[in-house]
Amino acid sequence: MPSFKTLDDLDDGQRVLVRLDLNSPVEDGEVQDNRRFDRHAETVAELADREFQTVLMAHQGRPGRDTFVSLEQHADILADHIDQDVGFVADTFGDDAIAAIDDVDSGEVLLLENTRMCDEELPEEDPEVKAETEFVQTLSAEFDAYVNDAYSAAHRSHASLVGFPLVLPAYAGRVMETEYEANTAIAEKEFDGNVTMVVGGTKATDVIDVMSALDEKVDDFLLGGIAGELFLRADGYPVGHDVGDMDLFDEQWEANQAKIESMLAEHRDQISLAVDLAYEDDDENRAEIAVDEIEEKTQGFLDVGSETVMTYSPIIRESEAVFVKGALGLFEDERFSVGTVGALEAIAATDCFSVVGGGDTSRAIRMYGMTEEEFSHVSIAGGAYISALTGQELVGIEVLARE
Ligand SMILES: Nc1ncnc2c1ncn2[C@@H]1O[C@H](COP(=O)(O)OP(=O)(O)O)[C@@H](O)[C@H]1O
Ligand SMILES: O=C(OP(=O)(O)O)[C@H](O)COP(=O)(O)O
């Protein structure tokens, strides 16, 4: 088990570069406040209170998606959470960023621009390669220490996550510490009864890999969201039509078709797919259709239907443990919240061991009147928490623990 240094080991009076995960939902260009701000505020407030010169890095969205925006709004939202100004510079490591970093005094906090706007951030490469990038070499010269608080991005081998620990003394932030402990303990838990996993969201590639790794631990996979539609497509249903400017299906279908087909061939009895789906009708109301009645791929589906919720709920009620990764529909729009809220309410109504993961999905709990206390653990991580469940080492944590 890796052991890393924490903020308790950090000597005072230093210039600290901190990686957070503030990746958030964006609606009509507006960044939505969510649990990640709340949780990371603890680390940032502690560093500011201890009078460090604190400079923050984070990412938002992926290039090409409409959630790929600047971090300017994130600085204001974070400032509200820590009750102190958070400066922002629209640069990752160029002259403007260096000048702004030089201006940071003890106890002040500055946020740099979206790390994914830097070309060297994203390609998944070994930490040793990332450590040599101009991005890491230039920025690290400005700091005495690096803190990684981004547990929920620790499964990505990106420069801001794995490069800096090789060139600066590295420490885990408070979120990294608590999420790591909780998720590792959960991964080691054994259950006597049925284990169910609710699988949805938009990152189908992440969840499909995890489903194959967990096929022995999980008895029932209940599918919805984009992953669910890809499985329905493999079953011959004409679904998977993008709505608006979302581009979620074709690339993920190509990347996963073979895996999905073999999962269906080998584990059919463990996989439940939606029997009906919801869409927006001509009057902008929610309408539902049985999957058997869908004739052509001309309609985008934004939620599982009510019949599906009635099929999934008893399976949840009879489970000893339920893990949620990803929403069953576009729950941010109340019309398409039926699947996600139905599954979460079924979990909350039982005394099963339950974990809800994902920055977006964990937001649905409060949005629809539930409380986090109704679940055993609510993680702000999605992909990282399910990677931890499969016993995989997260690269961002492995480098943090290196001597
Ligand atoms: N059918 C769908 N169409 C569009 N978006 C969907 C659909 N189903 C789920 N979603 C979206 O998936 C998001 C969660 O996706 P993801 O990033 O995979 O999960 P998380 O952040 O919880 O790990 C939610 O914000 C929800 O709106
Ligand atoms: O939101 C995140 O992941 P999650 O949706 O799996 O919780 C992380 O910020 C990682 O983002 P990425 O999946 O675009 O690399």
Short description:
This protein folds into two domains: 7-180 and 395-400, Phosphoglycerate kinase, N-terminal domain (Rossmann fold, 3-Layer(aba) Sandwich), CATH 3.40.50.1260; 184-370, Rossmann fold (3-Layer(aba) Sandwich), CATH 3.40.50. It is 36% helix and 15% strand.
Structure characterization notes:
It comes from Halomicrobium zhouii. The protein is an alpha/beta fold and 403 residues long. It contains 15 helices and 17 strands. Helix 8 packs across helix 9 (225-234), helix 8 (204-213) runs parallel beside helix 10 and helix 11 runs parallel beside helix 12 (338-348). The strands form four sheets. A six-stranded parallel beta sheet has the order 5-6-4-1-7-8. The mean pLDDT is 94. It is globular. It has two domains: 7-180 and 395-400, 3-Layer(aba) Sandwich (Rossmann fold), CATH 3.40.50; 184-370, Phosphoglycerate kinase, N-terminal domain (Rossmann fold, 3-Layer(aba) Sandwich). Helix content is 36%, strand content 15%. The chain binds adenosine-5'-diphosphate and 1,3-bisphosphoglyceric acid. Adenosine-5'-diphosphate is lined by residues 25, 200-203, 225-226, 301-302, 326-327, 329-332, 358-361, 382. Residues 21, 23, 62, 152-153, 156, 203, 206, 358-359, 381-383 line the site of 1,3-bisphosphoglyceric acid (X15).
